[in-house]
Design brief:
Blueprint: E1 2-3, E2 6-7, H1 9-26, H2 28-36, E3 40-41, E4 44-45, H3 46-63, H4 69-85
Antiparallel strand pairs: 1-2, 3-4
Helix pairs in contact: 1-3, 3-4
Length: 115
């Protein structure tokens, strides 16, 4: 990636893939809960977040061939199976970026916009 004169190089790409892989592994308990119940979580719910974590890691690992290949294969498999199991789990756009007909992010219930 080269932007504003900075070149980050392959070690940056590997670090990003590793960080995203860490998110997938660390969120194992959240995934287990999402299998049973899709609860509100901030501006969306647990299931779209889970699918987004899996997709983000899989894309980063695929772009860096040979990085975490077994976790990459597991993430792809999980993403495929869970996408079939949760066809309505769509990552919403934020209202400022939303296009007509696209699901929008929710305001968390505990946000008090009146104060």
């Amino acid at each position: 990636m080269k932007s504003a004169g900075a070149t980050l190089g392959p070690s940056w790409d590997i670090a990003v893939a590793a960080a995203l892989g860490g998110v997938v592994v660390a969120r194992g308990p959240a995934l287990a809960h999402a299998l049973d119940e899709d609860r509100d979580w901030g501006t969306t719910t647990a299931r779209p977040r889970t699918l987004t974590w899996l997709a983000s890691f899989a894309a980063a690992a695929a772009a860096r061939a040979g990085v975490l290949p077994r976790l990459h294969a597991l993430a792809l498999s999980m993403q495929s199976l869970l996408s079939e199991r949760w066809p309505d789990a769509v990552t919403p756009d934020y209202p400022a970026w939303g296009r007509p007909g696209i699901p929008l992010a929710l305001l968390p219930r505990d946000w008090d916009l009146e104060s």
